[in-house]
Amino acid sequence: MRNSTDATRLGINRTGLQMSPEHAQEMLEGTQLLEMDMPAGTSDEADGQALSAMRQEYIAMADPLGSVPAPATLKGAAKSGAKMLTGRRPQVFIDKLSERLAFERGGTRLYDAVYAKALASKGDISKVPAEELLEIRNSEARHALLIKECMETLGADPTAQTPCADLVGVESAGLLQAVSDPRTTLAQTLHAALAAELIDNEGWEDLMTMAREMGHDDMANRFKQALDEEAVHLTKVRNWYTLLTMETSELM
Ligand SMILES: [Fe+2]
Ligand SMILES: [Fe+2]
Protein backbone atom coordinates (compact mmCIF):
# COMPACT_ATOMS: atom_id res chain seq x y z
CA MET A 1 0.00 0.00 0.00
CA ARG A 2 1.03 3.57 -0.60
CA ASN A 3 2.11 5.60 2.40
CA SER A 4 0.39 8.70 3.76
CA THR A 5 2.46 11.03 1.57
CA ASP A 6 1.58 9.35 -1.73
CA ALA A 7 -2.13 9.72 -1.06
CA THR A 8 -2.13 13.50 -1.28
CA ARG A 9 -0.61 13.77 -4.75
CA LEU A 10 -1.92 16.28 -7.26
CA GLY A 11 -4.22 14.79 -9.85
CA ILE A 12 -7.28 15.21 -12.01
CA ASN A 13 -10.13 16.21 -9.74
CA ARG A 14 -13.32 17.39 -11.42
CA THR A 15 -15.38 18.04 -8.29
CA GLY A 16 -14.78 21.80 -7.96
CA LEU A 17 -16.47 24.70 -9.72
CA GLN A 18 -13.08 26.03 -10.89
CA MET A 19 -12.74 23.04 -13.23
CA SER A 20 -15.35 24.52 -15.56
CA PRO A 21 -16.11 28.23 -15.11
CA GLU A 22 -18.59 28.09 -18.01
CA HIS A 23 -20.71 25.37 -16.40
CA ALA A 24 -20.36 27.04 -13.01
CA GLN A 25 -21.90 30.22 -14.43
CA GLU A 26 -24.75 28.21 -16.03
CA MET A 27 -25.44 26.50 -12.72
CA LEU A 28 -25.54 29.77 -10.79
CA GLU A 29 -27.90 31.27 -13.37
CA GLY A 30 -30.11 28.18 -13.06
CA THR A 31 -30.29 28.63 -9.30
CA GLN A 32 -31.28 32.26 -9.68
CA LEU A 33 -34.00 31.35 -12.22
CA LEU A 34 -35.34 28.76 -9.81
CA GLU A 35 -35.59 31.33 -7.03
CA MET A 36 -37.33 33.80 -9.35
CA ASP A 37 -39.88 31.10 -10.30
CA MET A 38 -40.91 30.59 -6.69
CA PRO A 39 -44.32 31.95 -5.73
CA ALA A 40 -44.22 35.27 -3.88
CA GLY A 41 -43.47 34.90 -0.22
CA THR A 42 -41.78 31.51 -0.57
CA SER A 43 -38.31 32.62 -1.64
CA ASP A 44 -37.14 32.34 1.96
CA GLU A 45 -37.64 28.58 1.61
CA ALA A 46 -34.39 28.48 -0.32
CA ASP A 47 -32.43 29.37 2.80
CA GLY A 48 -33.50 26.22 4.61
CA GLN A 49 -36.52 27.49 6.55
CA ALA A 50 -38.86 25.01 4.86
CA LEU A 51 -36.50 22.18 5.75
CA SER A 52 -36.29 23.42 9.32
CA ALA A 53 -40.11 23.57 9.57
CA MET A 54 -40.46 20.03 8.24
CA ARG A 55 -37.80 18.77 10.67
CA GLN A 56 -39.67 20.33 13.56
CA GLU A 57 -42.85 18.52 12.50
CA TYR A 58 -41.02 15.18 12.49
CA ILE A 59 -39.33 15.94 15.83
CA ALA A 60 -42.71 16.73 17.41
CA MET A 61 -44.08 13.35 16.29
CA ALA A 62 -40.99 11.23 17.03
CA ASP A 63 -40.69 8.55 19.70
CA PRO A 64 -37.56 8.50 21.92
CA LEU A 65 -34.55 6.46 20.71
CA GLY A 66 -35.50 3.68 23.11
CA SER A 67 -35.72 3.05 26.82
CA VAL A 68 -33.59 1.82 29.71
CA PRO A 69 -34.59 -1.52 31.20
CA ALA A 70 -35.09 -1.40 34.98
CA PRO A 71 -32.09 -2.99 36.70
CA ALA A 72 -32.75 -6.00 38.92
CA THR A 73 -31.87 -4.00 42.04
CA LEU A 74 -34.75 -1.63 41.27
CA LYS A 75 -37.16 -4.48 40.59
CA GLY A 76 -36.41 -5.85 44.05
CA ALA A 77 -34.75 -8.90 42.58
CA ALA A 78 -31.20 -8.03 43.60
CA LYS A 79 -28.76 -10.88 43.77
CA SER A 80 -26.74 -11.07 46.96
CA GLY A 81 -23.83 -8.66 46.65
CA ALA A 82 -25.62 -6.46 44.14
CA LYS A 83 -25.15 -2.77 44.84
CA MET A 84 -28.23 -0.66 45.24
CA LEU A 85 -28.74 2.11 42.78
CA THR A 86 -29.42 5.41 44.41
CA GLY A 87 -30.60 8.76 43.13
CA ARG A 88 -33.92 9.83 41.75
CA ARG A 89 -33.24 8.77 38.18
CA PRO A 90 -30.69 5.92 38.32
CA GLN A 91 -31.63 4.97 34.75
CA VAL A 92 -29.48 7.88 33.54
CA PHE A 93 -26.40 6.19 35.03
CA ILE A 94 -27.37 2.86 33.43
CA ASP A 95 -27.86 4.60 30.10
CA LYS A 96 -24.41 6.23 30.32
CA LEU A 97 -22.81 2.92 31.30
CA SER A 98 -24.45 1.30 28.27
CA GLU A 99 -23.20 4.14 26.11
CA ARG A 100 -19.62 3.64 27.33
CA LEU A 101 -19.88 -0.10 26.79
CA ALA A 102 -21.12 0.38 23.23
CA PHE A 103 -18.37 2.90 22.48
CA GLU A 104 -15.54 0.84 23.99
CA ARG A 105 -16.74 -2.26 22.14
CA GLY A 106 -16.89 -0.19 18.94
CA GLY A 107 -13.43 1.22 19.78
CA THR A 108 -12.03 -2.31 19.91
CA ARG A 109 -13.37 -2.95 16.39
CA LEU A 110 -12.09 0.44 15.28
CA TYR A 111 -8.54 -0.39 16.38
CA ASP A 112 -8.74 -3.82 14.73
CA ALA A 113 -9.13 -1.87 11.48
CA VAL A 114 -6.47 0.75 12.39
CA TYR A 115 -4.04 -2.08 13.14
CA ALA A 116 -4.69 -3.71 9.75
CA LYS A 117 -4.21 -0.35 8.04
CA ALA A 118 -0.89 0.17 9.84
CA LEU A 119 0.37 -3.26 8.80
CA ALA A 120 -0.52 -2.49 5.19
CA SER A 121 1.10 0.97 5.28
CA LYS A 122 4.66 -0.07 4.68
CA GLY A 123 6.02 3.48 4.44
CA ASP A 124 4.48 4.60 7.75
CA ILE A 125 4.84 1.55 9.95
CA SER A 126 8.24 2.59 11.35
CA LYS A 127 6.63 5.75 12.79
CA VAL A 128 3.47 4.11 14.11
CA PRO A 129 4.42 0.90 15.92
CA ALA A 130 1.75 -1.72 15.21
CA GLU A 131 2.24 -3.37 18.61
CA GLU A 132 1.29 -0.12 20.34
CA LEU A 133 -1.92 0.02 18.29
CA LEU A 134 -2.63 -3.50 19.44
CA GLU A 135 -2.06 -2.42 23.05
CA ILE A 136 -4.63 0.36 22.63
CA ARG A 137 -7.04 -2.12 21.03
CA ASN A 138 -6.69 -4.46 24.01
CA SER A 139 -7.09 -1.57 26.42
CA GLU A 140 -10.43 -0.63 24.75
CA ALA A 141 -11.56 -4.26 25.06
CA ARG A 142 -10.66 -4.28 28.79
CA HIS A 143 -12.64 -1.06 29.23
CA ALA A 144 -15.71 -2.70 27.66
CA LEU A 145 -15.32 -5.63 30.06
CA LEU A 146 -14.96 -3.27 33.04
CA ILE A 147 -18.28 -1.63 32.20
CA LYS A 148 -19.94 -5.01 31.69
CA GLU A 149 -18.79 -6.06 35.16
CA CYS A 150 -19.98 -2.81 36.75
CA MET A 151 -23.38 -3.12 35.12
CA GLU A 152 -23.75 -6.67 36.37
CA THR A 153 -22.85 -5.50 39.89
CA LEU A 154 -25.78 -3.08 39.68
CA GLY A 155 -28.12 -5.77 38.36
CA ALA A 156 -28.28 -4.03 34.96
CA ASP A 157 -28.28 -5.89 31.64
CA PRO A 158 -25.08 -5.10 29.69
CA THR A 159 -26.59 -6.55 26.50
CA ALA A 160 -29.50 -4.10 26.38
CA GLN A 161 -29.38 -1.37 23.73
CA THR A 162 -30.26 1.82 25.61
CA PRO A 163 -30.89 5.23 23.97
CA CYS A 164 -27.34 6.54 24.47
CA ALA A 165 -25.85 3.20 23.36
CA ASP A 166 -27.91 3.54 20.19
CA LEU A 167 -26.74 7.14 19.80
CA VAL A 168 -23.01 6.37 19.96
CA GLY A 169 -23.50 3.40 17.65
CA VAL A 170 -24.87 5.74 14.99
CA GLU A 171 -22.26 8.44 15.73
CA SER A 172 -19.30 6.10 15.47
CA ALA A 173 -20.53 4.37 12.31
CA GLY A 174 -18.85 7.09 10.24
CA LEU A 175 -15.55 6.63 12.10
CA LEU A 176 -15.59 2.90 11.49
CA GLN A 177 -16.47 3.46 7.85
CA ALA A 178 -13.56 5.91 7.41
CA VAL A 179 -11.08 3.56 9.06
CA SER A 180 -12.29 0.46 7.20
CA ASP A 181 -12.18 2.15 3.80
CA PRO A 182 -9.21 0.54 2.00
CA ARG A 183 -8.43 3.86 0.29
CA THR A 184 -7.78 5.87 3.46
CA THR A 185 -4.15 6.25 4.46
CA LEU A 186 -2.80 5.63 7.92
CA ALA A 187 -2.74 9.40 8.58
CA GLN A 188 -6.41 9.69 7.54
CA THR A 189 -7.23 6.60 9.61
CA LEU A 190 -5.57 8.14 12.66
CA HIS A 191 -7.68 11.27 12.19
CA ALA A 192 -10.77 9.12 12.76
CA ALA A 193 -9.10 7.40 15.73
CA LEU A 194 -8.27 10.83 17.18
CA ALA A 195 -11.97 11.78 17.07
CA ALA A 196 -12.81 8.52 18.88
CA GLU A 197 -10.18 9.16 21.57
CA LEU A 198 -11.47 12.68 22.24
CA ILE A 199 -14.95 11.21 22.78
CA ASP A 200 -13.44 8.43 24.91
CA ASN A 201 -11.74 10.89 27.25
CA GLU A 202 -14.86 12.98 27.66
CA GLY A 203 -16.99 9.88 28.24
CA TRP A 204 -14.89 8.45 31.08
CA GLU A 205 -14.65 11.85 32.75
CA ASP A 206 -18.47 12.13 32.81
CA LEU A 207 -18.94 8.57 33.99
CA MET A 208 -16.39 8.97 36.77
CA THR A 209 -18.13 12.12 38.05
CA MET A 210 -21.52 10.43 37.89
CA ALA A 211 -20.31 7.32 39.77
CA ARG A 212 -18.76 9.51 42.45
CA GLU A 213 -21.97 11.55 42.82
CA MET A 214 -24.00 8.36 43.18
CA GLY A 215 -21.75 7.06 45.94
CA HIS A 216 -20.04 4.32 43.91
CA ASP A 217 -16.51 5.33 44.86
CA ASP A 218 -15.01 1.97 43.98
CA MET A 219 -16.40 2.27 40.46
CA ALA A 220 -15.31 5.89 40.18
CA ASN A 221 -11.75 4.85 41.07
CA ARG A 222 -11.75 2.18 38.36
CA PHE A 223 -13.17 4.69 35.87
CA LYS A 224 -10.39 7.10 36.81
CA GLN A 225 -7.85 4.44 35.89
CA ALA A 226 -9.59 3.95 32.53
CA LEU A 227 -9.54 7.72 32.01
CA ASP A 228 -5.78 7.78 32.68
CA GLU A 229 -5.33 5.06 30.06
CA GLU A 230 -7.47 7.02 27.59
CA ALA A 231 -5.24 10.04 28.13
CA VAL A 232 -2.29 7.89 27.03
CA HIS A 233 -4.23 6.71 23.93
CA LEU A 234 -5.06 10.29 23.05
CA THR A 235 -1.45 11.49 23.35
CA LYS A 236 -0.13 8.63 21.24
CA VAL A 237 -2.74 8.91 18.48
CA ARG A 238 -2.39 12.68 18.38
CA ASN A 239 1.40 12.44 18.08
CA TRP A 240 1.26 9.80 15.32
CA TYR A 241 -1.39 11.73 13.43
CA THR A 242 0.59 14.99 13.67
CA LEU A 243 3.83 13.27 12.68
CA LEU A 244 2.37 11.67 9.53
CA THR A 245 0.40 14.77 8.55
CA MET A 246 3.32 17.16 9.02
CA GLU A 247 5.49 14.77 7.11
CA THR A 248 3.08 14.67 4.15
CA SER A 249 3.20 18.46 4.02
CA GLU A 250 6.99 18.28 4.35
CA LEU A 251 6.86 20.62 7.32
CA MET A 252 8.91 18.19 9.39
FE1 LIG B 1 -11.83 3.68 25.09
FE1 LIG C 1 -9.19 5.00 23.77
TrEMBL record:
CDD domains: Ferritin_like (cd00657). InterPro entries: Ferritin-like, Ferritin-like_SF. It comes from the Bacteria. This is Ferritin-like domain-containing protein. It comes from Steroidobacter gossypii.
